[in-house]
């Protein structure tokens, strides 16, 4: 397990956010210190999962997820690093302790100043195919993973990585609750299975193609257990932007 401490970066916003770093420090992260209705992940089960520990200018810190999409790029939600001065990126771990803190174009890229050395526990996830930009994934089952709250009553994120299978619903169904446009992908939360606070920025991966199709973005203001749809950024909507910013062949 490695932790990259990104101490300085800038954000340039066009249709989304982009972060770049000039300095990095490696250190071991001691395992001292989820997904609502999910299961405990085993070591190495989600090698593409990144943990982001983010610090603001006032010293307050919060936690988000992300995904490894290449040896130098992390994909996450734009609201995660917003207003931050430092981002710690932890890879290859299912155990992490953090401080908990409590849209449109909610997508960001973090460029690491040094390349990741891939292992069985740290490796990239393939993004949804460019050939399928209009694929809705309606009815597909996808896996969400993260360290977020396990219930509305929980006060903090959990120690260990959890995951849950979620069923993608149509934007028409989602729009009965939220304003879901073409950049949004929604999942059912029936059975009180959902992403929650602390899972933001984490990946949603299709069980059919093993490709990332979404980035955890929002849940109902009523709570994570209210069985209202969970919202994700639709990855295929942003493939051109990701390619332009990273140069990756997506």
How would you portray this structure in words?
Residues 35-247 form the Peptidase S1 domain. This protein is mainly beta and 250 residues long. It has 2 domains: 49-124 and 238-246, Thrombin, subunit H (Beta Barrel), CATH 2.40.10.10; 125-236, Trypsin-like serine proteases (Thrombin, subunit H), CATH 2.40.10. The protein is 5% helix and 33% strand. It contains 2 helices and 17 strands. The protein has a 9-stranded mixed β-sheet with strand order 2-3-10-8-7-6-9-1-4, covered by helices on one side. The protein has a 6-stranded antiparallel β-barrel with strand order 12-13-14-17-16-15. The protein is globular, with a radius of gyration of 16 Å. The two termini are 27 Å apart. Residues 1-34 and 95-102 have low confidence and may be disordered.
